[in-house]
Write a structure and sequence with these properties.
Structural class: alpha/beta
Radius of gyration: 25 Å
Helix content: 25-40%
Low-confidence stretches: 1-20, 406-415
Length: 415
């Protein structure tokens, strides 16, 4: 964190206030008709739909009273409700490419029951996946406390801007000052905006009266506008999300399904002169599976390979195995349906690209540490252990909230 950014952040921080105030509402506009990234608002980053990430951050903000998602799409509405938000059905006339976000906010204010006491409203965009609750509080605070009339998230910028004709926008190319000698410049991030409802109704615009940019961490200001942005966000999620954020607890899941090669093994196979194959497994994984089985978790091995070693290991662990499965996502969905298990309450642990169809349908996709980069990018959590070296034991420890080795209440393994 640079000194200049620290100073800008300190200057924009909202003081605590106990003054009486009206309600604070977050509205998250989420259309279903994205052209650049189809299905964008339910695309998963860190294993969580973008709209749900925005809802989670908003609900965690201390300054926020209510969170609503305005959408014209049934899948987005379902994801928003599951994340804990109220849902406003957005009419078609304000859900096309020309509709403004302000129109969605105003419609929500007119539609939500009990919205008449909302004094400050926040527009939060779910295309900014790394927006935090503290960012939202920092934007809401100065408006709620009466210091300004509107505020928005902004990132410190040291960039020299140019016109296409080769002339400088914010500098003279013939004599540019050092970065530390230049005035602080802030770039609007597009993540969160706060405004007074009374002003919004008059101006129909998010910027009114006294305006304050709120400095947020530039490292977290990615906006998703095209497919490359989505993939970049997925790669960044394991680094920027809180270490324990993607880990479920036992009361969050009903089933744990694990891949075999590269997950329960280290992905290596030895073959003797007669063609017989053998693999190496980890005893700790067996201990973890045993603890989960006794805790009542439904367990399954799901393997693309049809091999006697899978059968032998499943028998040793005392759990079922489905083998020779090419369409793993279809097989997993069918097994869950037969068992009466909700996919949203299912955890799946995998390591390679053939596991991605399973990642896309379960509520808790988990990658082992040495998984293919595309698998880690789509995971909701990543183990610190590599496949075949205690990764499943680590998952069990996380689920149970204790080390499966000795019953202590601290984890044996950490990310």
């Amino acid at each position: 964190m640079t000194e200049a950014w620290s100073e800008a952040l300190a200057a924009s921080a909202a003081p605590e206030s106990s003054a009486a105030r009206g309600a604070v509402l977050v509205v998250i506009p989420a259309r279903g008709g994205s052209k650049g990234v189809p299905g964008k608002n339910v695309a998963k980053v860190g294993g969580v739909p973008l709209v749900a990430r925005a809802v989670h951050a908003s609900l965690a903000a201390a300054r926020v009273d209510r969170v609503a998602v305005s959408t014209d799409d049934a899948d987005i509405a379902a994801a928003a409700r599951a994340a804990g938000a109220e849902v406003v059905v957005r009419p078609a006339e304000i859900a096309d490419d020309t509709a403004t976000s302000e129109s969605a906010v105003l419609h929500a204010l007119d539609t939500l029951p009990g919205a008449g006491d909302v004094e400050v409203v926040l527009l939060v965009q779910c295309t900014s996946p790394f927006l935090t609750a503290s960012d939202i509080d920092a934007v809401a605070g100065p408006v709620v406390d009466g210091e300004v009339d509107s505020a928005f998230t902004a990132a410190l910028s040291h960039g020299f801007l140019w016109h296409p004709d080769g002339t400088g926008v914010n500098h003279d190319p013939s004599g540019r000052p050092r970065r530390q000698d230049r005035p602080i410049e802030l770039l609007e991030t597009g993540a969160a905006y706060a405004m007074r409802v009374a002003d919004l109704r008059v101006t129909r615009h998010r910027f009114t009266g006294r305006i304050r940019p709120i400095a947020v961490d530039p490292a977290r200001t990615l906006e998703i506008d095209e497919p490359a942005d989505l993939e970049r966000a997925r790669l960044l999620a394991p680094l920027l999300d809180a270490p324990d954020e993607g880990w479920p607890r036992l009361d969050s899941i009903d089933a744990l399904v694990v891949d075999f090669d590269g997950t329960l093994t280290d992905d290596r196979v030895t073959v003797d002169q007669d063609g017989r194959e053998s693999v190496v497994v980890h005893r700790g994984d067996g201990l973890g599976i045993g603890m989960l089985r006794r805790a009542g978790v439904a367990l399954l091995i799901l393997s693309t390979e049809q091999n006697p070693v899978v059968t032998a290991r499943a028998r040793k662990l005392g759990i079922p195995a489905l083998q020779g499965i090419d369409a793993k996502g279809t097989a997993l969905a069918q097994w869950c349906a037969e068992q009466g298990i909700d996919l949203a309450r299912t955890a799946y642990v995998g390591n390679d690209v053939n596991d991605l169809p399973c990642f896309d349908i379960v509520g808790w996709p988990i990658a082992v540490a040495d998984a293919h980069y595309s698998v880690r990018a789509r995971a909701r959590a990543v183990t610190s252990a590599v496949g075949g070296h205690g990764a499943i034991r680590e998952v069990a420890s996380r689920l149970l909230g204790k080390d499966v080795r000795d019953g202590s209440e601290s984890f044996a393994l950490h990310r």
